[in-house]
């Protein structure tokens, strides 16, 4: 018994210590959360991953009745990550905004609606940094149909869009657009200048994928390989895609620029003109400007370094 007493006493202390540790762990988990616990988002993603792996192992077969199709699963994935985006991530960049000057005539507005195929057109004063509103095509239709007189200025037609900071969450903007029943937002940078533009459709497409109608042009390839190692490119091509598809050195740049057109602007220090050839020193590639409209480059041709051409010939 004498030998058993110390043993029992020690066991009791270990038990008390264990209980205290468990109690403290429980309190910490309650107050600060359990770092090891998975979130509902993670559980859903894991379930989708497992389902995709099983589908690949079993081969492509139609989903069981009531089950999620591949398209539906992709939408769920997009929705799970939608809240991670800011409006700046998904906005139409400033260079691609189609807008009309406040002093323009109604005839100019009607012509722009016909050319652009948009339902809403921003109205600016002097520069795009001062967008004073937007015009909805329904208001223009009423005038074209003769139900309203042709206005002397665009002022009677101007409605107010939303003005939002570039750091705003995409999900927050979607909720605000629904609440205020406004389907166009102007994205502002830190200096209150115009950074881009977003429509309700742009946000929905982040979840369901691109929505194209009968007026949308067929999508064109951003990067097109040519003979001799040359590439023809849309200036909107992302540098990440260019680096992956053509040469990783083309994406190696310190400045805050995302597209080939932006890279051309950085190299030239201005908007380069058609026919100019710019040297990208880091990679040895040459950027030939094929088209620009005075405000931005729209199309380029990429010429490979001499060493790359010689290697391909060998």
UniProtKB/TrEMBL annotation:
Domain CBS: 91-153, 157-214
SUPFAM superfamilies per record: CBS-domain pair, FAD-binding/transporter-associated domain-like
Stretches for region Disordered: 1-21, 47-67
Bias-annotated ranges (Acidic residues): 47-58
InterPro entries in the cross-refs: CBS_dom, CBS_dom_sf, FAD-bd_PCMH-like_sf, FAD-bd_PCMH_sub2, Ion_transp-like_CBS, Transptr-assoc_dom
MF GO annotations: flavin adenine dinucleotide binding
Cellular component annotations (GO), alphabetically ordered: plasma membrane
Entry keywords, A to Z: CBS domain, Repeat
UniProt similarity note: Belongs to the UPF0053 family. Hemolysin C subfamily.
UniProt protein name: Magnesium and cobalt efflux protein CorC
Source taxonomy: Bacteria, Pseudomonadati, Pseudomonadota, Alphaproteobacteria, Sphingomonadales
